[in-house]
Amino acid sequence: MARPEPPLGSRSLQSPAQIRVHVSQATCLDISSFKEVLREFRKLDDAITMRLNRENAMVRDQERAGHKGSGSVQEQACKNLWDELTANWKQRTRIISYCTQVMDQSKLEKEQAAETEEDAARRRRALDAAAFAHDVMRNQVHNELSVDQIVIRRSLQAFRSRCRSFHPPDNEARKFWDMS
């Protein structure tokens, strides 16, 4: 019996939307881990043209196999990719929002600890240095919201250029369509 092969490519080309990641406070407080998680989720955006091509090929293969969907191959491919993109964008937005909350709470805790510290000036300087380093990380996490908006807009431009007749359904994912 033949082993089933992944459709149209290797596992490395699978959608980041299928990735399940547990993001904890520790992930948010470690900027390298946080950025690695975002990098994984941005792979779909980085390869949007390839994904559109692959989605078209998959829908055509399904039609040849007798599985007829509604609309043209292009419309079906655009709908499938739209669903994938919006699920990915929602998850990424949730992760960034969660991490900004974690960073803001951590900053507040560090400020409170510095206020209650009555030790020597050396201990106070150490706390101030730690607070400054934390502020730098906090700003990086906050900046990811802006970066993500740019990534989404760029992906939307590529998507719209290939899916000119596509109109997203009126649901919460519509807000992404209205961004650009």
From TrEMBL:
Pfam family, one: MIX23
InterPro entries the record matches: MIX23
GO cellular component term of the entry, any: mitochondrial intermembrane space
Protein family per UniProt: Belongs to the MIX23 family.
Protein name: Caffeine-induced death protein 2-domain-containing protein
Organism name: Roridomyces roridus
